[in-house]
Amino acid sequence: MLPETDIVRILAEQQYITPEDRDTCLAQTEKSAGVDVSPLEYLKQKDLVTDAIVGQAIAEHYGVKFFNLGGNPPSRGDVTRIPEEVGREHRVVLFEVTDESIHVVTDNVHIFEEEQQPRVQVEKETKEKQRGGFFGMGGSDSSEREVIEVPLQEYLEKLFNARVEFGFALSENIDDALELYKPELSERFQQIIAEAESAAPEIVDQVIAAGIAGNISDIHFEP
Questions:
Q1: Structural contact between residues 54 and 7, judged by C-beta atoms closer than 8 angstroms
Q2: Pick from 93, 140, 160, 193: CA 20 to 30 A from residue 13's CA?
């Protein structure tokens, strides 16, 4: 995610706040170094921006679409179509499949910069001719595998066999989507019961962790 000072400058650049608001915000937060108020929090407290405006401004700056996942979160089935190690490392989430393309959302703005786009390691099969037979005549093909790096977009387009378009989503929504890689609570309970010597404490820990992640206010246990 971008530093908040950069986001404030983008908001002014995209004319969501005035240059005066930008300068006042940055000056105010510099003066308030000992106070727990960030530049974006200051703008929100003044009712100058919302989370959706911040996301839209960043998306416009990079020339991509903004996807508000808060009101329309992706499904577990869509998220897990991207291998977990790739999704978590590069913070990419499959959001939408259309007839024309596949939309993948991220808060990793380097993905939008062609010269800085991250690369993914993949295995590639290579064939070598092995000599054999009398006097080296004939022979056979043998396959070996080597690891190569390809741009993330190329990797995803080969994975889905379709054109991939990247969009921007807010970091908190990307965090929520990546949590869908975790198994359902019922699956985790079964694993704990099968493996743990004392299952109850671990089950309680998992329930509380899931409640915190889901911003749940109350947890009820029934015998």
A1: yes
A2: 93
Q: DSSP alpha helices (H): ranges in 32-102?
A: 39-45, 51-62, 76-79, 84-90
Provide the whole-model pTM. Answer: 0.74
pLDDT tens-digit readout, 75-117: 999 999 999 999 999 999 999 888 888 999 999 999 998 778 8
Q: Using the predicted structure, report yes or no on whether residue 136 has a pLDDT greater than 60.
A: no
d(CA 21, CA 11): 10
Q: How many CA atoms lie within 13 A of 40 on its CB side?
A: 15
| Nearest-angstrom CA–CA distance, 26 and 40 | 10
- Mean pLDDT over each residue of the chain, to the nearest integer: 83
- Nearest-angstrom CA–CA distance, 86 and 96: 18
Q: Which long-range contacts (CB under 8 A, 24 or more apart) does 35-43 make?
A: 38/4, 39/4, 39/5, 39/7, 39/8, 40/4, 40/7, 40/8, 43/8, 43/11, 43/17
Q: Residue 28 pLDDT > 60, yes or no?
A: yes
Distance between CA atoms of residues 53 and 16, nearest Å: 8
